[in-house]
Amino acid sequence: MTKNVLLAATAVSVMAFAGAASAHTLTYRAAPTVASHISAIETGGATAPYKLAIESSLTTPAFNTFALVSTLSAGSQFPSGNNFVQIDLVGGTFNSGLASSAVVAPGCTSVLSSGGTAGSTTAKFLVSSAGGGCNLANLDLPIKPNAGSEVSVTTTLTTEAGAPIDPPSAATLKIISRVDAFKVVFDSAIGGGALGDTFATLTVNPVYTTFKVGADAHGVGETATVGQLGTIKLVVDTDAYKDLAKNAVVLGDVTEAGVTIDGNYNAFNGAGGSAALGTAMTINSGATQASLASSLAVATSLVMEASLVPAAPAVSGVPFIVTRETAATAIPTSTYKASVSYKLDAASYNQEGPALGDLESIGRDGTNVVFPWMNSTAIQGATGTSNIIRLGNIAGAATGPVYAQVLNSVNAGAGYTPAAAPVQVFPSIAANGERVINTATLTTALGEFGRGDVQISVEAPSNTVTARRYATLANGSVTELNSGTVASDQNQVNVP
């Protein structure tokens, strides 16, 4: 009994010195002992990692010394007697053998106890305290990261008997992170890079010669003839480093950058029109604008090329703006796909491929009807069910084109990917005429989409279009089915 009581008293004594219910921390020191070493000055914070650009091709220097500190919690200190500070690395090794001076605990003496050889990942230091308020250990660790790896350091504090000091006794700090220092950001979100939905309106004569303006359409910053389809920026992380010698990434590391935007510019390349990287919200005064020449007016799909200047993360993107030519030209539907290519300083970086992104599409006002539970020919063959959609035009003039788009699908053919934009099925519906879409028509236009919901869009006002959907089952029976979403069912506006 007496022995047990004495051991318990010893444990209480250790806890009293070490501190209860707290934990020691491992952080960068505010400043290094040697100017070339890495400290919180370079990371921007005691717990922030040193950011290495993943694009860097530099392999020298292969290491640096990291100035860290293992600090006991307030009111705690190393217990009197011998204690251990164990250091473990993940993602790197000690570049050279550690000396006892690699760990200095003011008020204590420290000596390398084991490990710490060049190429190893573990070292243990003996820290002896006379109880004089020794409560931290400064670490200067020469660390060589593994190729492409992030690096973390863990310190574990124990007494010579193995009891934890300032439990939990282990603290870990990520000292090196790998970051993408050069990023292209495409913003085509409505209310973001794209200021409002961009679609040509039916409410003018000639139709589709202006953009719709107002609620749920163009607002501040856009007009009936000017639309912003998104923004693009090449972001350079100037808080990152290209090597372990503390050489920072800079904007000038991008030696060249260009933008190609593929789309239909038929209404924008004539006199008075343009498709350009705008000056408003430009990343800096050096951004170059380029617009399409009027000599390209006969083309149906053009490519706009312009230069792009790199920017810091907080700077806004460059807006891509289309302006209708002076003549009242019909604005086409089109997707706009951007490709940004850039060159990095060949002496420091590996080159990267182009970044691809979608900008906002231009649509046309019209009638959209969702038909649930449609199927392709493969499903028809398996179940015997086919679908027919009958579209009628009750106006005395032909409609615009008719489009179809798969909104969701199951049991699709192998490798099937739904089209990102509506696919034209018919060029028009004749005046006072009709069009019939069957399963084969949809499969030809959309592919083997299996079973899913399909949206049919007609470039015509909804009060001039009728739409009905019928399903023929395997037994020959014909059923008329409702169209629309649950919301349209509830509002009893399923079919125009």
Main beta sheet: 6 strands, mixed
Query: What strand line-up does the widest sheet have?
Result: 2-11-10-4-8-7
Query: Which of globular, elongated, flat, extended, rod-shaped describes the shape?
Result: elongated
Question: Can you tell me the residue ranges where pLDDT is under 50 for at least 5 consecutive residues?
Answer: 1-21, 279-305, 490-496
Secondary structure: helix percent:
under 10%
Radius of gyration over C-alpha positions, nearest whole angstrom: 34 Å
Which structural class fits the helix and strand makeup?
mainly beta
Please count the helical segments: 5
Distance between the termini: 92 Å
**Residues in β-strands, percent:** 35-45%
Mean pLDDT: 84
Q: Care to count the β-strands?
A: 29
Descriptive report:
There is one protein chain. The protein is mainly β and 496 residues long. It has five helices and 29 strands. The strands form seven sheets. It has a six-stranded mixed beta sheet, with no helix packed on it. The longest helix is centred in the N-terminal third of the chain and has 17 residues, at 2-18. The radius of gyration is 34 Å and the shape is elongated. Residues 1-21, 279-305 and 490-496 have low confidence and may be disordered.
